[in-house]
Specification:
Helix content: over 70%
Order of helices and strands: HHHHHHHHHHHH
Number of strands: 0
Shape: globular
Distance between the termini: 19 Å
Largest sheet: none
Number of domains: 1
Structural class: mainly alpha
C-alpha cells in the first residue's frame, strides 16, 4: 500500500511541479526560476535532514552523490527552458523517459538488456520521434523537444548515479544533495552578480514548484523502499497527468501524431518501470 501511495503522491506532486513551472517561465528566465525553486527546496530540506541524523557516507559514494545532485539540477534547468518555449503536453512525456535513459546508461556500463526492456526502449524512442513531429517543422517546437530530451538525459544520469550509491541515506538526505548543489552553483552566483530576477506574478508558482519538487521526490523515495517497480510505474504517470491538465486548464492542442507519440511514451515508460 505504501508503494502505491508513494508512487501516486510523486505523480501528483511532479504534475504540479511541471504545471507551475510552465506558468512561472512565462514571467522569469529559467535560471532565476531554478534558483528560487532550489532555495525553497533547501529551506524545506535542511530541517528534515537535521532531524533525521547524519548518515554514514563512504568515499566511494561521495562522487555519485555529487553526480546525482548536479544531474538533477541540470535536468530541471533544461526542463524549465523547454517549458518556457514548448507545450506541457509534449515536454512532460519526453522528460519522463528518464528511466529509459538510466536503463540505457546501465547497459552501456555493462548490464544485460532483456528483450522486454529493448522493446520498451524502442517504443519510447518512436514516441519521442512522433511527439517531435509538427507541421512545417516549427523551430520553437523542435527546440522544446531538444531541451526536453536533454532534461531526460540529465535526469536519467541522476537516476543511475543514485542507484550506484548502493546504500540508503534516508529520505531526507536523499532529497538534500540536489538542493545544495542548486543553491551553491545557481542561486548564489546569480545573487552575487545581481542576475537573479523574480517578479510578483511568478513568485507563487516558483515557491509552489520548490515545495512540490521536494514532496514528489520524498514521496517516490518512500514508495520505492517498499516496492520500487510499483512506485516507479505510478510516479511516471505524471507525464500523462500533465498532458491532460495542460489540455483542460491551458487549452493546449496537439496534433494526432503528437498525441500518438505521447501515448507511446507513457506506455513505454510504464511498461519499462513495471518489468525492472
Amino acid at each position: 500500500m505504501l508503494a502505491i501511495l508513494g508512487g501516486i503522491g510523486a505523480a501528483l506532486a511532479w504534475t504540479a511541479t511541471t504545471l507551475t513551472a510552465s506558468r512561472a517561465t512565462r514571467y522569469v528566465d529559467s535560471w532565476s526560476l531554478l534558483a528560487t525553486v532550489m532555495t525553497v527546496g533547501l529551506v524545506i530540506s535542511i530541517p528534515a535532514a537535521a532531524l533525521s541524523g547524519t548518515p554514514t557516507i563512504h568515499a566511494s559514494n561521495a562522487g555519485w552523490l555529487i553526480v546525482a545532485g548536479c544531474a538533477n539540477v541540470a535536468g530541471l534547468l533544461f526542463a524549465y527552458s523547454a517549458l518556457r518555449v514548448g507545450k506541457v503536453g509534449v515536454v512532460a512525456p519526453i522528460t519522463s523517459t528518464e528511466g529509459a535513459v538510466a536503463a540505457v546508461i546501465a547497459v552501456i556500463a555493462g548490464e544485460s538488456l532483456s528483450g522486454g526492456t529493448a522493446g520498451c526502449l524502442i517504443a519510447i524512442a518512436l514516441g519521442v520521434a512522433l511527439a517531435a513531429h509538427t507541421p512545417g517543422g516549427g523551430r520553437v517546437h523542435l527546440k522544446s523537444v531538444m531541451l526536453a530530451a536533454l532534461a531526460a538525459l540529465a535526469f536519467g544520469l541522476g537516476l543511475y548515479a543514485a542507484g550506484r550509491n548502493g546504500q540508503s541515506l534516508g529520505i531526507a538526505w536523499a532529497v538534500l544533495p540536489p538542493r545544495v548543489v542548486g543553491v551553491a552553483v545557481i542561486a548564489l552566483p546569480l545573487l552575487a552578480t545581481r542576475r537573479w530576477r523574480m517578479v510578483r506574478a511568478a513568485l507563487p508558482y516558483a515557491v509552489a514548484g520548490g515545495i512540490f519538487e521536494v514532496v514528489g521526490f520524498a514521496s517516490y523515495a518512500l514508495g520505492a523502499r517498499h516496492n520500487l517497480a510499483i512506485a516507479a510505474v505510478l510516479a511516471s504517470q505524471f507525464a500523462g497527468l500533465a498532458a491532460v491538465f495542460s489540455f483542460l486548464v491551458f487549452r493546449e492542442r496537439l496534433t494526432r501524431i503528437q498525441v500518438a507519440g505521447v501515448v507511446a511514451i507513457v506506455a513505454g515508460v510504464s511498461a519499462l518501470s513495471a518489468i525492472n
